[in-house]
Amino acid sequence: MTTRSTPPRFTTLLDWVDGRLDADTAAEVADQVAASDEAQETVEWIEEFRAAGAAMPLAAKPSATRPVSSTPEAM
Amino acid sequence: MTTTVEGVTQLRPPAPRPLATAQPSDGELLARCRRGDGSAWDLLVKRYERLVYAVALRNGVDAEDAADITQTVFVALLDALHRLEDDTKLASWLMTVARRQAWRLRSTSRRTVPLEQIAEPAADPYPDWETQVVLHDALTALGGTCRELLLALYFDPDEPSYAELAERFGRAIGGIGPMRGRCLERLRSMIAEDSR
């Protein structure tokens, strides 16, 4: 009898997407993802999140420019 | 760090740093700003300066103009402090104002060049805008260490290492990976709940 294993945990999937697993574990997770719609949805979401970060990196404002500072006045 | 106790040198872990979870929320900072608290204003600016600058850059202006727009946006926030409709949506408010300022600047500068040299603007040059707005509002709601960690790992072009982040957040290096997983999973849950 074949039993369907539970999908990998979120953190494991994140490690997999981030390339932080060793080759054997990564291959195992890849099989689990292929077999699970839920895991695939999670992986897609993680990839979308990563893409959003890459699309709009939060670089520091050049220090040569004026600092953004002013003090709000109490009203 | 080493200390000597009765002639015996012992290794002592560094003193724990205050956790970022102790950081005030946007709502708290805005309330303090409304009372004229300059330190709260500085914290607020520091928290969002990079985001505003990034939005301006992403909307087609150069670095110098993006810096000017950043200045303008925070002046606008100062002016609107008492009229904000929803303090929990500060990120999207700032992003929207920055975007409009960038578009305004670009359309103004276009008037100085011959019409034939003006490229037709796309309907929306920033197709993932809504995703960005939702994410940054959710990150704001997440707050504290989680927000800072996720921004550092996935939005910081300097790509700090786990070792640097462990130092920054006063955590063990082995805890950074699992923590990012918990934070991102929570963020996903918050976005899902918000969209229901």
Question: Overview of this structure, please?
Answer:
- The complex is a heterodimer of chains A (75) and B (196).
- With 75 residues, chain A is mainly alpha-helical.
- Helices cover 52% and strands 0% of the residues of chain A.
- The longest helix of chain A has 19 residues, at 37-55.
- By secondary structure, chain B is mainly alpha-helical.
- The model of chain B is unreliable at 1-21 and 113-121 (pLDDT under 50).
- Chain B has eight helices and two strands, in the order ββαααααααα.
- In chain B, 31% of the residues are buried.
- Chain B folds into two domains: 23-111, RNA polymerase sigma factor, region 2, helix turn helix motif (Rna Polymerase Sigma Factor, Chain: A); 143-196, Arc Repressor Mutant, subunit A, CATH 1.10.10.
- The longest helix of chain B has 23 residues, at 173-195.
- Chain B has a two-stranded antiparallel sheet with strand order 1-2.
- Chain B starts with a strand and ends with a helix.
- Chains A and B meet through α1 and α3 of A and α2, α3, α5 and α8 of B.
Tell me briefly what this model is:
Chain A is an all-alpha fold. In chain A, 52% of the residues lie in helices and 0% in strands. A two-stranded antiparallel ribbon of chain B has the order 1-2.
Tell me the greatest interface: A-B, 34 and 47 residues
Structural class of chain A: mainly alpha
CATH topology of the largest domain in chain B: Rna Polymerase Sigma Factor, Chain: A
Choose one word for the global shape of chain A.
elongated
